[in-house]
């Protein structure tokens, strides 16, 4: 007989599978409507590029940014996702991004682990929104849950977004075949979306993306715990060094404006990430 946790994980996966197809179609409409500049959602370089873009927005002095208080000593990890959501009464959402584990006692981070999110939302929902989401993880159980082969994410969500970039904050409960925990999320949102409902979907490592990037079979646990041989491949030319640097700036409550040299590097990385995605199709 399945345990309660295994049943929840199986249910979440089934829900996520059904929602993913609808959400992917929704995402095409949402993206075309609001056309943010984004890299590929299906390769590690693209996900890292999108994470860097999120951190750059958070550091911009023209935004409210992200509170340094979220980077407390209890912080265990962060997940940075690009997420699309749309619907009326019932909505689908799909997301992709990277998960980083914070090394204990120091302001250093693990190698990136590719993650995916898909699932439905229920309640009073209307509209469509595109979101860059930063998830703050404060306990080891949650990190363990997210590294599981199948994860589940359920939580209450209250959001109102009208045009430009808005803010969304939620507290979620994570379940998987390896544990349970909680998260706090902050989002830069573009679109038009009103929501008072419950969000429930599947969050899990994207093993095929991780295998392709690290050029070998590797688990999320190995990546996040820095197992033997886990290293950014030489010549990958991602923006992960800038991601680490900007996480440090946010920890210190700083703001930052990219210089010309960085902007040129970011543009080249965007072209390369999207070119790699096209080669795989």
Automatic annotation (TrEMBL):
Protein name: Ysc84 actin-binding domain-containing protein
UniProt xrefs under InterPro entries: SH3_domain_YSC84-like, Ysc84_actin-binding
Gene Ontology molecular function: any one: phosphatidylinositol binding
Organism domain of life: Eukaryota
Family matches, as Pfam families: Ysc84
Segments forming domain Ysc84 actin-binding: 119-243
Source species of the chain: Helicotheca tamesis
């Amino acid at each position: 007989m399945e345990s309660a946790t295994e049943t929840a994980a199986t249910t979440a996966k089934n829900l996520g599978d059904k929602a993913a197809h609808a959400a992917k179609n929704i995402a095409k409409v949402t993206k075309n409507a609001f056309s943010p500049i984004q890299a590929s959602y299906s390769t590690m370089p693209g996900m890292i590029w999108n994470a860097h873009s999120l951190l750059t927005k958070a550091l911009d002095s023209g935004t409210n940014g992200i509170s340094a208080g979220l980077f407390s000593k209890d912080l265990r990890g962060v997940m940075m996702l690009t997420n699309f959501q749309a619907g009326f009464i019932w909505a689908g959402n799909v997301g992709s991004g990277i998960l980083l584990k914070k090394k204990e006692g120091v302001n250093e981070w693990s190698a990136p682990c590719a993650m995916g999110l898909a699932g439905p939302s229920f309640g009073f929902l209307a509209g469509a929104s595109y979101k860059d989401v930063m998830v703050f993880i404060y306990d080891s159980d949650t990190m363990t849950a997210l590294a599981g082969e199948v994860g589940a994410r359920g939580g209450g969500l209250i959001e109102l977004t009208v045009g430009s970039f808005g803010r969304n904050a939620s507290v979620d409960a994570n379940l998987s075949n390896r544990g349970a925990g909680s998260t706090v999320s902050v989002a830069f949102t573009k679109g038009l979306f009103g929501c008072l409902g419950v969000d429930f979907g599947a969050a899990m490592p994207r093993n095929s993306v991780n295998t392709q990037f690290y050029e070998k079979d590797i688990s999320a646990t190995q990546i996040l715990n820095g197992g033997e041989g886990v290293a950014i491949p030489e010549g990958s030319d991602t923006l992960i060094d800038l991601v680490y640097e900007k996480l440090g700036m946010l920890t210190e409550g700083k703001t930052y404006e990219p210089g010309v040299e960085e902007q040129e590097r970011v543009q080249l990385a965007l072209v390369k990430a999207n070119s790699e995605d096209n080669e795989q199709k």
